[in-house]
Amino acid sequence: MKEKLALALLSFFLGLGSFFSFYVAPTLFKVLERQQAGAVVEKVFPVYFGLGIILVGISLFLGRDSGKLFLSLGILNLLLLLLQEFIVIPKLHGLKATNYELFLKYHGVSMGINLAILLLTLGKVLILIFKR
Asked: What is its main location?
């Protein structure tokens, strides 16, 4: 039962993250001015990563008996979410107004971390699916 709930939480986060990262964010930048789209994304990302911290944290607790690989991926996933929420996103926010060139570099790093978060989440989902 605990693993099914962990699977549901991780699947929800994976779907949410994929939808936002690969559809919503790019669409915002296509239909809105860059500044407007950036303002929207700037408000959404802390909620997205905060929710990820909660869901991944709960799933890590619920799936603690799912093996070392699940735990390792879960801990790394949680650390990357914390990094995004409390270090990278605030740094990006500050750089956007002061050093746009450096902002773009950090933005690339942030995108890579987000992709890693989604891939780690997918890995944990697959572990739980195939563990059955």
From this structure: membrane
